[in-house]
Amino acid sequence: MIFVLTALRRPLGIILLSLLHILEAVVLFLAGLGLVAVAEFSRRHEFSIPHHFQGLLPLIGGALIAFALLCLVLAYGLWTGRRWAWIISIILSILVLIASILSLIRGGLGAVVTLVLDAIILYYLTRPRVRAFFHEESAPSTQPTTTVPQQVSSSAAPVTGMNCLNCGAPLTSGVKFCSHCGAQVQ
Description:
There is one protein chain. The protein has 186 residues and is mainly alpha-helical. It has helices spanning 2-9, 12-45, 51-79, 83-105, 111-125, 128-133; strands at 158-163, 170-172. Strand 1 and strand 2 form a beta hairpin. Helix 2 packs antiparallel against helix 3.
């Protein structure tokens, strides 16, 4: 039940970014595995690959497999709303933007697509609702908050108009901690 509630609050763009990182991990893993297999095949069957590449291919393949695992970890962090994943995604977007700009300066027009996509990703990651998902700041609430003291009842029904100041989730009456993010209710 908790998984369903958090899945409903997960922004659509974060779902897409997580799935994109999973797809990237699959491609990197298969490419790395392919390089390692080609190097092993060439070593056993005297395949015509230059000698200096035979030692380099397994290293590159291993690096690609390691990057695939890192992409999976980042996808998990984004999916579960970990702050470190948000920070790493911001840093990666900025680095790719810089690389795209440098590529454009050198005359590579193919970097335009990468530049636009990473600019959109960077803009999206800094939106208030997305930042709130990663507990960076509280999301703007659509419901007005009231400062009128509520009467504590024995049932755990949501109190209308009261939201967590940290994540914006509706609060139940008489609670001391938010059931969504664990922040102390004031």
